Amino acid sequence: MSAAEAVRPASVDVDELRIDLVGAGVDVVDEIGLQIYPGEVLGLVGESGSGKTTVGMALLGHVRRGGRVGGGTIRIDGRDLAALSDGDLRRLRGGVVSYIPQDPGTSLNPALRIGTQLSEILEAHATSMSDEQRQARLREALEEVALPSDETFLRRYPHQLSGGQQQRVAIAMAFANRPRVIVCDEPTTGLDVTTQARVLETVRDLCRSHQVAALYVSHDLAVVAVLADRVAVMYAGRIVESGPRERMFSAPRHPYTRRLLRAVPDIAGKRTVVGIPGHAALPGGRPQGCFFHPRCEFAQQDCREVFPPVTDLGAAHQVRCYHHDRAVQEAPPEGAGQADQHAIGGDAVLAVQNLDAHYGSRHTLFDIDLVVHRNECVALVGESGSGKTTLARCVAGLHKEYTGKVRLGDDVLPEAARSRSAQARREIQYVFQNPYASLNPRRTVGQTVARQLALFHPGTKGDVSRRVAECLERVALSSSAANRFPDELSGGERQRVAIARALAADPKLLVCDEVTSALDVSVQAAIIELLGKLRQQMGLSLLFITHDLALIRTIADRVVVMTDGRIVEQGTTEQIFTAPRADYTRKLLANTPSIEVALGRVAAPSA
Amino acid sequence: MSTDQTVDTAVDLGLEAGIEGRAPIHEELRGHEWLWILRRAASLTRTRIGLAIVGLMVAIALFGPLVAPHSPTEFVAAPNSGPSSAALFGADALGRDVFSRFLHGGLTVLWLSAAATAVGIIVGTTVGLVAAYARGWVDDVLMRGNDVLLSFPQIILVLLAVSAIGPKLWLIVLTVGMTHAPRVARVMRGAGQEVVERDFIKAAEVVGEKRWRIVSSELLPNVTSPLLVELGLRMTYSIGIVAAVSFLGMGLQPPTADWGLMINENRLAITVQPWAVGLPVLAIGLLTVGTNLVTDGVARAAIGLDRGGKS
């Protein structure tokens, strides 16, 4: 940190913050210390349940129901939040400290025009302004986020805007009162990469030009690498490592940070992603000593006794680990190895020919041609609305309104899954995006898998439980999971169950529809590892639908790029990433956040 | 844990650790939401009061005939005479013992109501869930048919059928049940529509599960909480309608003892001998209040009002 920052007071100064669960006697987060200086973006990274949002909310003087500040201080712009009255807190929020929510679709009032929403927040805080000044500020706020500020736009309702525009309105509202501090809670999670890139740029520019201190809460390491000046990593309610961006990504010290980075795929190169074994501990179930030690390969006796104190490594880099020196020596910081090569057979398992699909009167897919060979992984990539899921559903027999042919081997399949032969249904299996919705909550895992066996392998009556255990074993779940209900499992485990169910049919082709987008990055890596292993063991072909280009680089043999219902480019993964031909592909690549590119290790793909 | 475990075994160990770390659920209730709801409902005061009332009325209906001092058709005192040593609550318009007739008269109301409720719930749930799952024209035909039936008051349809065919008990059960069905169907369709959108239904379609199987074993187990509430609600309405039909003389015929009929037979002498009307009125009133309290408790437990949010 420069000398100038030592003189300038921090806009956010959190010290030893602890937030408790009321009545449970356990903390959600504890020993949180962070400073953010004017104009600086601090990326707060962590997986779900790590407490990152809890910390973000605390900066707004808000604690979720069931929680309470148990100790420590939060100073915003020099003011201690604990000392403020409710009225003062209200004036602080939206004025001195403001908030950009995750989903603008739910945070904007659908019944109010854009202009009304914006002037509301100005009226609440900029009370000394005249109406004309407020109008001017309102237009300025919209122009800053590159939105039109004319009367027509101000009279629109939120539903008349795209997701990206809605998020810009939310950003304009957050910056309208010239706050000193801004809290961003994963504001780009629901957006397409192109929109995300523009939104990130806007946030960064506004923070710089208005000298706003920003806390950017995210699970996406690549986004943080692009945006943040400093990064803090949270695990199970503690900040385990923090430091300047370059050091955090090129020389991380904490074993968790290092494992996390190994789990992240990157568009810059084909790499093996490695999941983190085990689970993050929940409040109340955290182990003695370092919370990460049960999952840590460097854990020693001391790790099991006392949580490690903060070690200052200089240059504002801090880590909470006894053995960070060993971690650096023994493990490579990221997956340097090449991903496995698969032998791809010549014959096509799936061929889609001249497929056109409709939704009622809407024409959604245009003249799609696609082939998946034996043991091949074909990635279908596109932004939301590109028709990639519709195509997958046509293949699976879930979307019936199409013309053209879907061939499985030599047979042309009927449109509806119900009219297809049992064999066709067995050979194409579908894994859904959201494992929280794709398993019947009233059935145990064992019943779900057993039903699949009964449907496709009716001979296996006597030894069903043994067969179920085998299926679960293939996806690295223990046989005791058979007695569990879905809501007793984590997201990653549920997705494994969904995969086990699909595999129980003994398919040739697995259609994976965004199977990792609902999961944390370390869990995503474990699922990707598993799919790779299954491909080798069972000779499976994969049709892998995703919006995440980085993931494709790791898993796919061939890539099909779609937009607006049309295929714009097909090619081997190497071709697509090193020599993309279509403008659209180049734009996608240029807008996908990458750690490697952000750190300047590889050149940015040109748009 | 050793430091050199493979990813696979570590995932296994992690799975167990993760599960143990979660809040314990009553082992026997796992996956059976309706049992869980009933248990939570039973802890509410309103449910307990309701259960006590319903229990008392059911006990009277079931065991009343065994302890009744007289036969329900025996003449014991002067018509419309007040309470005496021969008749605890006096005699009715024909001189029969009011108390004995009261003790004999509950069973028919109860079983007719229960049977009608069962008919309504079964038919209504089937129609509602089929409409929710089928969508399209099947949904339209079923639900518009429903709307036609819904436009008539229940009692009118029941009276119409009974006056056309005659005062048969099976007919009362059937018609009361069938007038419940569209009301149940509308609720179950609404509940089902939400579930039908979830991916596990598509997962069942993609592997070619039969339609009836998707409705019965994917959809039905996921709508048990509104089903429980409907069950209670329709029972309450059944009691009212069955009693009303008897009162109008379209149900059980004299000289049978029946609460609804008793009110009708003795209403002219209400100022002279209020017990002959008051006792059955009180019984029917208490019974509906009781079933309503139980239903209210179940509904509160189902939406999590009892503990400020469903965990």
Question: Can you give a write-up of this model?
Answer:
The complex is a heterodimer of chains A (607) and B (311). With 607 residues, chain A is of the alpha/beta class. In chain A, a hairpin with a 2-residue loop joins β4 (67-76) and β5. The radius of gyration of chain A is 26 Å and the shape is globular. Chain B is mostly helical and 311 residues long. Chain B has a single domain (34-307), classed as MetI-like (MetI-like fold, Orthogonal Bundle), CATH 1.10.3720. Chain B is elongated and about 75 Å long. Chains A and B meet through α16 and α18 of A and α1 and α9 of B.
Write the layout of secondary structure elements.
The complex is a heterodimer of chains A (607) and B (311).
Chain A: H1 3-7, E1 12-21, E2 26-36, E3 41-45, H2 52-58, E4 67-76, E5 79-80, H3 86-92, E6 97-100, H4 104-107, H5 114-125, H6 131-144, H7 151-154, H8 163-176, E7 181-185, H9 193-210, E8 213-218, H10 221-227, E9 230-235, E10 238-244, H11 245-250, H12 255-262, E11 311-312, E12 318-319, H13 324-330, E13 348-359, E14 362-373, E15 377-381, H14 388-396, E16 402-408, E17 411-412, H15 422-427, E18 428-431, H16 445-456, H17 464-474, H18 491-504, E19 509-513, H19 521-538, E20 541-546, H20 549-555, E21 558-563, E22 566-572, H21 573-578, H22 583-591, H23 595-598
Parallel strand pairs in A: 3-8, 3-9, 6-7, 7-8, 15-20, 15-21, 18-19, 19-20
Antiparallel strand pairs in A: 1-2, 1-4, 4-5, 9-10, 10-12, 11-12, 13-14, 13-16, 16-17, 21-22
Helix pairs in contact in A: 5-6, 5-8, 6-8, 8-9, 16-17, 16-18, 17-18, 18-19
Chain B: H1 7-21, H2 33-42, H3 45-67, H4 98-104, H5 106-134, H6 136-150, H7 154-165, H8 169-196, H9 199-206, H10 211-219, H11 224-247, H12 259-266, H13 275-303
Helix pairs in contact in B: 2-13, 3-4, 3-5, 3-13, 5-6, 5-8, 5-11, 6-8, 7-8, 8-11, 9-10, 11-12, 11-13, 12-13
